[in-house]
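ESCALATION

Customer reports they have been waiting on this structure for their group meeting. Please prioritize. Original submission:
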Amino acid sequence: MAFFGFKDIDKLSEVDMAVYRFIVDHDEQVPYMRVRDLAKGAHVSNSSVMRFIHKIGYSSFPEFKVSFKTENQDLMKSNDDILNIITRDVFPNDIEKTIKLVAHIMLDADNVIFFGMGASGAIAKYAARQAASLGFNSLAVEDPYYPLIQQLSNASNNVLITLSVSGKTTELVETLNDFVNSADTVLVSITGNIESPIARIGRYALTYKVKETRIHKYYDLTSQVPCVYLVDGLLKELRNQDNARRLN
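Update from on-call: job pushed to the front of the queue and completed.
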């Protein structure tokens, strides 16, 4: 039996759910409550509490309390602060200045392209959508073999922002090499590796420090939170500069 692992939630009645939610919301107090205390807190009857206890597999209320207390303690044993994902020291000291410079270039661009693969590609789609919402001509490219050079061959004043945690992805580097000598496209990167080819190949690099995490050799579980943080910061600054320009 496991309260938090109870799988048949769909079989619980509305009254049962009231008891269930109260227990979840008062997990530290429940092991010290009596049946009538729990019933009063959940605004149900004593018999409703006991029907719920039996329904989830316990023969008595004391048995439930002992099991629940142990289960709850095991659940909270981790000492990791799971929300302490990002701090200011993840970014370079001059990151705000770089963000302002990139936003200024984007402000006058005819086309803003966000380029990435995998999880970075998903963030590229998010960034492009947000930029479009701000009124900028933006698109996301997730396919490294997309004919981007051909599409932009007759376009000028482009900003190509590449997202890559490692900054070493071969397919991305090969695509960016086509734009190295382009006078019409400014290359920008958002990457976790300031020494990487992708960071070095462009005019500006928005960088951060993150520990790369992989499982089963191929599956990348590296946090993308710093990247999203930079994307949101960039879009916020873009909006601020756009609003300031409209007021002048």
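Sent to customer with the following note: The two ends are 67 Å apart (CA to CA).
Escalation resolved.
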